[in-house]
Amino acid sequence: MKYISAEALLPEDLLKEIQKYVQGRMVYIPNSEGSRKKWGEKSGNRNYLNLRNSQIRQKFGEGSNIDQLSELFCLSHDSIKKIVYSKNN
């Protein structure tokens, strides 16, 4: 986590108010409620996995079997089963 000086970031009156409670120490300020991203949204992994799982379901629907999909997508037999039989179709 990158260190940022409060003097450079906060208005003077807010800084003085915070100094009533904390002086010379680091304080973590969390993101506001609802602004937190879900796993993989920032990196794009969530989109990649959703696309891959859609392709697996499509190929399964077109007649590919679990073993073929397991080899094609380099996933375990059980992982492919979870994807094709999940309710996220």
Q: What do the pLDDT scores average to?
A: 89
What are the low-pLDDT stretches, counting only 5+ consecutive residues below 50? none
| Beta strands, count | 0
Most strands sheet: none
Overall outline: rod-shaped
Structural class comes to: mainly alpha
Helices, by number, come to 5
Relative strand content: under 5%
Computed Rg? 24 Å
User: How far is the first residue's CA from the last residue's CA?
Assistant: 39 Å
Approximately how much helix is present in the residues? 40-55%
Protein name: Mor transcription activator domain-containing protein
InterPro entries: c-mor_Regulatory_Protein, Homeodomain-like_sf, YraL-like
Organism: Paenibacillus macquariensis
Verbal overview:
This protein has 89 residues and is mostly helical. The protein is 51% helix and 0% strand. It is built from five helices and no strands. Helix 4 packs across helix 5. The longest helix is centred in the middle third of the chain and has 17 residues. It is rod-shaped and about 70 Å long. The model has no long low-confidence stretch (mean pLDDT 89). This is Mor transcription activator domain-containing protein. It comes from Paenibacillus macquariensis. InterPro entries: c-mor_Regulatory_Protein, Homeodomain-like_sf, YraL-like.
